[in-house]
Amino acid sequence: MRxxxxxxxxxxxxxxxxxxxxxxxxxxxxxAWLIPLLLFAIALxxxxxxxxxxxxxxxxxxxxxxxxxxxxxVNEGSLALTVAFIPIMTAIVPHFSxxxxxxxLLVQLGFAIIVADFGITMAHYFSHKYSMLWRLxxxxxxxxxxxxxxxxxxHPLHQAIELSAGTLPLLLIGMPIExxxxxxxxAALQLMLxxxxxxxxxxxxxxxxAVAAGHxxxxxxxxxxxxxxxxxFTHLWDHLLGTFVTNSNERPSPRNGELGIGSQPNYPQNYxxxxxxxxx
Length: 280
What we know:
Layout: H1 2-28, H2 34-51, H3 65-84, H4 86-92, H5 105-127, H6 131-141, H7 156-172, H8 177-194, H9 212-215, H10 236-241, H11 271-276
């Protein structure tokens, strides 16, 4: 049974919540229903991590849980506000009204995910190349353990940069508010799976889908060894950039004590300090 769950949990988790979200959107027309659905997804993620941990030590808070809750509330709240302002932005910002409204909702969402994945991946990639971007992004890399909830840990300015890179092309072609809400919901699910402490099995999917099995390599604390696997939803752009890696004898998946920022082992861990650290 455990082996079956290891193989099936991640795809079932993602697809089930996506289908539920699109169904709710079609039947209610209100993105507000996505909030309780996301809370349920977070709770289910915690249960799965307790049952099938990749690293048992990562299930124990290290004085970081309250901080991570604040990060999640601020970042998801700002995302919700951004989605709410989509109609205003499309009214103000010049755009081409060529959004494929006639496509099925799931296909529209898939298209939005692919476009956003490219923009966010490239913003992430350049955040490891340029000092000022890295200072903002370092907040996310300060984590010492990986569990689903800290996928939402980001400096709000860096989230704004990634969000702009991922959604501006979509806004320019007239993305509707319901797709914006579903895209934000999909990104939250993906971030949970990407940082999950579940001992998941992926098979050939590991070469395409950017979940925890590959993303743990991105959080190693040893120098530039973490400059790999930048993708949010997929590894497609990592293959093109030459930054994709997977588990091997030469590069085993990181374990407890191997995450963080090697050059800044005492990086601030409370929320307020992390807001101001990039500007010091």
